[in-house]
Amino acid sequence: MNNQHPPPTPHQGNRLRIRMITIGGIVIGLIIASYWLFVSYTTQQPVKTDGRPFMELTDLLSRASIADDEGFQKALTPITFNFPEDHLAHPDFRSEWWYFTGHLTGTQDTGNTFGYQFTLFRQATAPHQADELQSNPWRTPQLYMAHFAITHIEQQSHRAAEKFSRAGPGLAGTSAKPLAFWLEHWRIESEQVDQLFPIRLVATDREHRINLNLQLSPEKPITLQGNEGL
Asked: Strand 95-105 to strand 142-152: parallel, antiparallel, or no bridges (unpaired)?
């Protein structure tokens, strides 16, 4: 018995070639369509639900919306400060910051000297609305950025890290009793409830292998910067 199929006729061969060409064309078309969908998706601007494009936080902390300061208080004339309350955030103003800098000497080897810097920035995207914030803490207009760096003088090395977050709920901010400033686990906090100093500064970044854990106390009285704080 002969189980071999007869060879295809010219008609059948043409149909097979047409089918193969058609399938190949569909596959190529799908690949091209998928590529353009991917490019379109990865290059398009992210948008909010209201249709406006997101603002880069680096822009926000430098120049964005500075001209549009309607609704914010402005530091135009000297005021009477009341400490420690005025160490806290002032959400009616657009921006402010808290910073610490200093020189350190190694405890195990007095030949090692270091410089350090820690800064916490607050920037508002819109004027403060207490009622809206109470209804939904995620809608806070307050954004925070923290930056700290350590320089090893003898090794001539410098390492720095930064972190960004909105204020709420509880991710970043300031509070009284004890006085505290924080962004996630980076924290500055008074060690006594009713006194500002001594104050503890703690910040760790595993990626850059740097760590600060300092107890800070003043050697001089408070001095206002510039013209009575302006």
From this structure: unpaired
